[in-house]
Amino acid sequence: MESAIRTNNLRKVYNSPPPSAAGRGDGSGPKAPNVNDKQSKESKSQITALDGINLEVVAGQIFGLLGPNGAGKSTAVGILTTRVRPTSGAAWVGGHNVWQDQTAAKRKIGVVAQRPNLDFSLTAREILLFHGAYFGISSRERSDRAAALLDRFKLTDRAGQLVRGFSGGMMQRVSIARAMMHDPQVLFLDEPSVGLDPQTRLLLWEIIREYNQKGRTILLTTHNMEEADTLCQHLAIIDHGRIIASGTPSELKASIPGGFVLRLRFAHAPGELLQRFTALSGVTEVRASGETGADVYSDRGGSLIPEIVTTAAGFGVELSDVHISEPSLENLFLHHTGRSLRE
Fold first, then answer.
1. pLDDT in tens, 240-252
2. More confident residue, 282 or 21
3. Which domains does the chain have, with CATH numbers?
């Protein structure tokens, strides 16, 4: 099948050297720089945002990059939309290498950044009209498109007002309408629902599905598990700049050992106790979580609690807290990283 987006061993390392040392205020001033110290500091200040990711998004898909803040999602989108230069590797949109053929790639894409970047001196309608003009759309056509988009995003009543007075949710709607103005083949949405109220979020999801039904490809980044599970046909979960799992939402959830996760907390958790948990019926895996906890993966949830309490009591250990999670993308991330997506 045709690929709308593809990356090959994509890496991005940011260099953020620390500021020059300031004097201590005792008249001694900064010490003479040591070459080895300087090299060490520069090496430590490097931040690897992407560590060799390989992605392939089939044309016509809603594809989600799911991961916690700082995982590398926005950097990946920045490279694919020509705003961030990769350290190494390559990326293509619609068959165009995004750094060797930027102009052709830009004509294929629409981009909604994580934070609104609207011109506050313009009205909502003017923003859409000017964007259409950038892409050579005729005056009559861009006027019709702007009117249709303003209506679909429920902005017609405010179309003639300056966007500086809009709420955050309204600005986000204008941003997405602007990105759709030239009808791009590939639409990038970076954390599109952050800060939106539930009603606006549902409207956005409905519009995204409609746009996808026209045959358009959509790549969105999110750390919202519900959004990823509800909207996306295919997912890649990213953490520390690496893809740790990929597949359809149902495939990913089915890959969790046992499905259910019981997060247990004790006053103390001896290794012998955790070993005994592995022998309980339905338990597929037990992992220590710090010195006082354990994550138990099982094909059953609440019915396992009495057996856990009884087993712990046999070791003189009292269960202080338990949290049961049904099969979810959150549990998948927990299984691969040992921590929550929201941490």
1. 999 999 999 988 8
2. 282
3. 3-16+43-252 (3.40.50.300), 257-326 (3.30.70.100)
